[in-house]
Amino acid sequence: MWLLLVLLQAAVLPAQPCEAPGEAAAAAVRVLSARLLGLAADPARDPDPSVYLALRLADDHDPRGEERYLARLRDAFQRRYSRSLQAAGRPHAAPHGHPQRDAAAAEHSTSAEAEWPETGRLALYLLGLRAACPPPEPGPQRSLVTWLKYYLEEDWAGSRWHGHPLTSYYQYGLGVLALCVHRKRVREEVIRRLLVAEQHGRFGHAGGSAVDTEAVAALAFACLERERSVGAGLAAELRAAARGVRRRMVEAQGQDGFFGNVYSTPWAVQVFIATKACRTQPAYGRAVAALLQNLDAFTTAATMAQALPALHGRSYLDIASMHCREEPDTLTPIGPEPPPELPGNMTVRLVVECPELRCPQRRLYDQPVPAPAGASLLDVLRAATAWGPPDFTYVVPFDTQETPQGPFLSRVLGLEARQQKRSYWQLLSAPSTSLQMGVADYRPRDGESLILRLSRW
User: Fold this and answer.
1) Does residue 227 carry a pLDDT above 70?
2) Residues with Cβ within 8 Å of residue 247, at least 6 apart in sequence
3) Per residue in 262-298, pLDDT tens?
4) Which residue, among 222, 33, 49, has the nearest Cα to 123 in the 3D structure?
5) How far apart (Å, rounded) are the C-alpha atoms in residues 384 and 452?
6) Edge to edge, what strands does the sheet with 406-412 contain?
7) What is the spatial distance between Cα 265 and Cα 288, in angstroms, rounded to a whole number?
8) CB neighbourhood size of 202 (10 A)
9) Measured at the alpha carbon of residue 296, what is the angle toward residues 293 and 302, in degrees to the nearest 5?
10) ∠ CA 9-15-17 to the nearest 5 degrees?
């Protein structure tokens, strides 16, 4: 049964316009927040702005723990962006937004990865700074805002060659949203790039759902309209676009209550909250109920951080109206639990596919791999390296890159996934179910067939 949650007197946010779950469900969400706080306290983990945002948008807080985490974020970001664009060897963005570097030059640069726009990550950090209580001095933020505007232009340089941002519409949308939440003017041309993409259905990518991207774009549209930072005509277009995204989500909601899958659903729920449609749309209640029934799916810091704002009935737009008052010091961190050790062994069928023209054979590997019961997909890959046929043991069979969300599969059997080529290793449970989890987090079942497929978005 759904009850209106009475906020604490010392709350940091205005009263929630959406209904929240009853006491038992609220207690389960509080435990999830405490688990995220426990993961955030681990100094071995790289700080992630989305984790800080989830802690700030919660009902319960650990002010000292959040301050320590913010300090770590500042150390990671301020050092990188402390110099001006000119001091860093990059020209300021032109007044009319013309890109300053040819995308083709970036593609052929030996340091292309280091030069790649960090649009989404910097946007999340700026959102985190706005959520800090009290907010930091505006001086350092001006430099960060300038960097973000620069990245938005660098990101769009790829459109002259590819017709889309160099990174993704998801990151580009986060950049627009962060500028809006900071109440910074966003040029109409920048807005229309995102708006046109939504109007022409360009947010989808091969083998994956566009729910996350559509949700981020809708949040940016709703923010721009709410802040009244655009003219009446453009505001009407933005309002229609946000409503269109929400309508498509309702129409596509699955029987299980999810929008896309369990991991993309929290983003979609934020759209209903931000557009104040959560009371009028039954789809919102079904989605929240589905999330509450599947809290055990959120096991990593990244997935917890994605789920918690929506479970607390808040969206990233609430950051713009946060007021610093005395916060309730009511959250105690819960340390991470080691995965249960299961006795015995299992066998997983491992398949590696490359449907691209450069691959003479579509299927590069197809073998059963024995591994300990309860092993992760990463453990299965290691077992395949030690176990088997020559085609998985020559040179380096696979490689990963460390990210704040955990290891990212970057190379398999000599084939590299590159952001510049908009390619990635898609993880599937046969025949076509996307895992939506990283190689270190997913734990296959005995007899399951897993496919690593080189794909494009």
Assistant:
1) yes
2) none
3) 889 999 999 999 999 988 899 999 999 999 999 988 9
4) 49
5) 13
6) 398-403, 406-412, 415-416
7) 9
8) 15
9) 115
10) 155
